[in-house]
Amino acid sequence: MNSDLLLDDFDLEEINADYLPIAIDPGRKSVFTAVTGSDSREVKRCSIKEYYHLTGSIKYSVKLQRLEDQHNITDIESRIPFNKTSSLAQYRAYTEYIFISLDALFKFYDHHTSRDRFFLYQGRQRSPESMVNMLLHGTSKYNRRKRNKKKKRDKKRKKKNKNKSKGKKKLQKMKNVVRPNKFEEFKSKISGVCFWWRNVWERFGGFEWLEMWSYRYVLPSFEEA
User: Fold this and answer.
1) pLDDT tens-digit map of 146-176
2) CA 44, CA 33: separation in Å to the nearest integer?
3) What is the pTM of this model?
4) Distances (CA, A) of 219 to 16, 34, 208, 212
5) pLDDT tens string 50-66
6) Are 23 and 35 in contact (CB under 8 A)?
7) Angle at alpha carbon of residue 121, lines to 110 and 50, rounded to 5°
8) What does the DSSP 8-state code read for residue 218?
């Protein structure tokens, strides 16, 4: 059995109690501009820049540009001739330049960039769900409680990373400290004691003093026994 629902079938109180009306308008400078609710009419917006941030494209572009500048790829790519032309000489110059620079380009865009491309693919798959979550729940952009929680988490993460870096620096300093060898230290103490005993021995006559002490104290005790 089919039933057609019309606008007159819904009551305003029923809509406010059970539904969340959302009016969405796509734009040129924003992915969407939405008005949620019938009473409060909260305006929510997702700009194109914010969408690219959700996909991770901005972060990847900055990283890729830094690597291109380090490996001189920016200069190579900026000198590529224009290929959309009807001139045979112009297109031949383009192909010759590509063949000359092919090894450098393949060396830079090798299998190491596949990891970043996979993360970009994940970001493109994740961004629509993030925008829907923004519409329904507000996320940290429109929810003050979530925004405060996010700030606290970021502070804890920064503090944890700072303590880790301090611990690594302290460990590195402890490794760089030159500690005295325990055997050498003990050897120096023993040599000092031996030197002192040698001086005492020579000062009191050595074996003569020991013989005199034995005749005076040791032998009488044996005779009495």
Assistant:
1) 767 777 787 888 777 777 776 666 666 666 6
2) 6
3) 0.53
4) 118, 115, 15, 10
5) 888 889 888 899 999 99
6) yes
7) 120
8) I
